[in-house]
Each structure stands twice: as structure tokens, then as C-alpha cells.
Amino acid sequence: MRAILRWTALIVAAVLFLLPFYLLLRNGLASRAEITAPQWTLFPSTVHWENFSRLFSLADVPFARSLLNSAIVAVLQTTGLLVVCSLAGYGLARIPYRHSGIVFYAVLATLMIPTSVTFVPSFVVVSSLGWLSDFRGLVIPGLFSAFSVFLFRQYFLDFPRELEEAGRMDGLTRWGVFWRIVVPNSKGFFAAVAVITVIGSWNAFLWPLIIAQSPDSWTVQVALSGLLTAQNPQLNLLFLAAAVSILPIVLLFAFLQRYLVRGVTESGLTG
Q1: Which UniProt keywords apply (predicted)?
Q2: Mind listing the pLDDT tens digit for each residue in 156-204?
Q3: Reported pTM
């Protein structure tokens, strides 16, 4: 009986989880008339595979370019954030100095500031630098994350000091110990933070909407909003675009989800 109940619960959970994906694909491959029809059908009467070509050939919404832009922004932002935040977290965890505690609590205090509050001054700075509709404006303001610094600090506090001391005895500087000993032995945790950052960067909407003013610089989320606010919204293409846009994140999560669990456990957040 326990096995039956367990499998029933798992099947129900799986159906509820897959239902949004089914709706995206079903409506994306259907015609507009079938989406708005009063009678619901489980599958469209005719599968319109040509919707893929229509989606990627839209003149007012460059969807293929937006996918490429999102990928570039996610890769650059994730790489830069890992470098900046890992160095900051390692410094707060391992380099003793007088005001390290004050600096750490000041970094944590920024987590209580709503992101929307910083949009106006950030936009003024980016606009004055001439970074509108530019990758620099999309990437550079997101290279620092107080939450990532906190995660790295918590992880490095538990990193074995013996490995670092062995490196110092071999003549490595603190910089060399970090890059040649700490980083190679922390690949799993770096991967966990990378997954979180990629997902957040790919799903970002408000900041790219403000900065990416040219259609050639749109990210995928801005392109989706362009499909939604068009004068003649094509619902089937909107559903199909949503399905295509979440596919990279679903695949990334499916293959790297173990690093997310590992990152939570190794950062000390379970306590």
C-alpha cells in the first residue's frame, strides 16, 4: 500500500510539473483558431510545424538574435561574477584585517535593498557611459552579487586549511594558493553558483528591458514581451517562443541539478 501511495503521489506530481510544458507545446503547434476555440481538444487537429520557421523569420521581433544575446550575456555575466565574487568571498573568509566583519555585514545589508530602488541610479550611470543597447550595459552591472559573495565566504570558511598551508610551504603566494589549490578543489561549488547565475541572467527581464533599447540588443525575455505587446499578437508563436526560450534552462537544470544541491549543503545554509 505504501508503494502504491508513493507511486501515485509521484505520478500526480509529475503530471502537474509537465502540464505547463504540454500547454506550451500544444498551443505553440496549433493554429490561432484552435487556441481560442470554445471547445478544448487534447491535441491540435493539425500540427503546424511551420510555426518554427515563422517564429524565427519575424521582422519586428528578432528571436534568433535574442537567444544569442541571452546566451552571450549569461556566459559573460556568469564568468565575471564567479571571478569577482569568489575573490571577495575568499578575502572575507581567509584574509584577516581589522574591518573585515564590518565589510561583510555591509555586503549583507545590500541584500535588504530592493533591486528596483537601484534601477534609476544604475541607469543614469550606464547611460552616461554610453552603454545603452550594449553588452557592457547588460553585463557589467550584474558582475557583483552579495548573495554569491555570502555563499563563497561560507564555503571557504570550511575549506581545509591544511591544503592552503601546504601550498604556502611550497612557496606559493596567497594569490597562487587561491588559483592553484582552492579553485581546482572547489569546481563543484563553482558549478553550483554558475548554474544559479545562468538561470537568473537568462530569466532577467526588467534591467534588459531598460537597457536594451534597440531590437538587435534584445534578450529573449524582452523578445517575448515584444510578441505579447504587438499590435496583432500571434498567440501560437508566443507559446512556441516561450517553449523554445525555456528549453536551454530546462536542459541545464536537468544535467547540473546535483550541483545545486551540493552548493546548498557545502555553503552551510542547511543549518
Answers
A1: Cell membrane, Membrane, Transmembrane, Transmembrane helix, Transport
A2: 988 888 888 898 888 888 899 999 999 998 888 898 889 889 999 999 9
A3: 0.86
**CB burial readout 106-117, b (16+ within 10 A) else e:** ebeeeeeeeeee
* DSSP for residue 30: S
Task: Please give the C-alpha separations between residue 99 and each of 91, 95, 102, 144, in angstroms, as whole numbers.
Answer: 12, 11, 5, 20
The whole-angstrom separation of Cα 151 and Cα 166 is 25
On whether the CB atoms of residues 183 and 167 are closer than 8 A, the answer is no
> Is residue 183 within 8 Å of residue 83, measured between CB atoms?
no
- Please report the sign of the dihedral spanned by the C-alpha atoms of residue 128, residue 129, residue 132, residue 137: negative
Of the chain, the end-to-end C-alpha distance in Å amounts to 34
- Cα 165 to Cα 22, 40, 171, 180, 182: the distances in Å are 54, 67, 10, 13, 11
Alpha-carbon span 223 to 228, nearest angstrom: 9
The mean per-residue pLDDT over the stretch 26-48 comes to 84
Count Cβ atoms within 10 A of the Cβ of residue 121 and give its class: 0-12 exposed, 13-18 middle, 19 or more buried. Answer: exposed
Helices 63-94 & 146-157, crossing angle to 10 degrees? 40
Is residue 196 packed enough to be buried (19+ CB in 10 Å), middle (13-18) or exposed (0-12)? buried
Alpha-helical segments (H) within the chain: 2-28, 32-35, 50-55, 63-94, 100-109, 119-128, 135-139, 146-157, 161-169, 174-177, 187-203, 206-211, 220-228, 235-266
Q: Which whole-number Å values give the CA distances from 111 to 106, 117, 118, 267, in the listed order?
A: 9, 12, 12, 17
Which letter does DSSP use for residue 31 in this model?
-
